[in-house]
Specification:
CATH class of the largest domain: Alpha Beta
Order of helices and strands: EHEHEEHHHHEHEHHEHEEH
CATH superfamily of the largest domain: Metal-dependent hydrolases
Bound molecules: adenosine monophosphate, zinc ion, fe (iii) ion
Helix content: 40-55%
CATH topology of the largest domain: TIM Barrel
Number of helices: 11
Number of strands: 9
Length: 283
Amino acid sequence: MKFADLHLHTQFSDGTFTPEELVLRAQNVGLACIALTDHDTVEGCARAAAACANVKMEFISGAELTAEHEDTEVHILGYFLDPQNRVLLNRIAKFQADRQNRINEMCAALNKLGIPLKAEAVFALANCKSPGRPHVARALVKEKLIDNLDDAFEKYLKKGRSAWVPKTKMSALEGVELIHQAGGLAVMAHPGLNRTDDIIPDLVDAGLDGIECFHTKHSTVMAERYLEIAEKYNLLVTGGSDCHGFSKKAPLIGTMKLPYEHVERLYAAKKAADAKRQAVAAK
Ligand code: AMP
Ligand code: ZN
Ligand code: FE
Ligand code: FE
């Protein structure tokens, strides 16, 4: 049996592995195919693709876009994205800039509380265009301003806590469109985590291609529920570990292995979408 992990993060967002380390780990746990889905960036895709090619592992370039629909946060996974797509790169550059501003704002809020964390320390640690709260948490631990990552979230960074700053999000409908115009397939990430079931029909109307039924934080009951929803709306089924390396305790890669038949359906859908686009362009 062949398996895949279609939800992985690297140092290009808030994971701790380099693309090369991630691929080595994927190889060690016996995966045949991986997709890189860093938050709001495709920066790591070229290196991950090269590392996969070296070990003859299949690679799907992707990203996890932060979006919202009717005040509900929803993460949209894009698969088979062209990492050079100009429209995509221009659009996500704005969200990356907002993420960087947000680090300044979170540090200012911490400073007000008497915690002397400098934004520069967070940027130095993050060293990427898409910094987020896990980088602030790690910087707090590194600077010995807090004991551990959980405490950082519990005390300061969780939604509603004193140094929490909301993130700018694109609309989910725009996210789906942005992914499609970059040659990708749009998949709703971990629906069980955000309690986003109500918005599924709207996203389907907008052209959603798939739903992430299998995720390390989905119970078996949840996975079954989303498999039923996938069937009802004729959506592709995906799954992944959402591994962030050591950002959250032990690395999750290898703990969620997606049967390869789902990847085959993804490839078929990508082929069909490309053919449809070509037919439209030829008209
Ligand atoms: P951001 O994109 O900056 O809002 O950060 C989101 C990241 O923080 C995701 O990878 C989450 O899994 C992680 N995160 C959110 N809440 C917590 C928490 N309570 N403890 C640890 N990590 C968290
Ligand atoms: Zn993350
Ligand atoms: Fe997510
Ligand atoms: Fe993720």
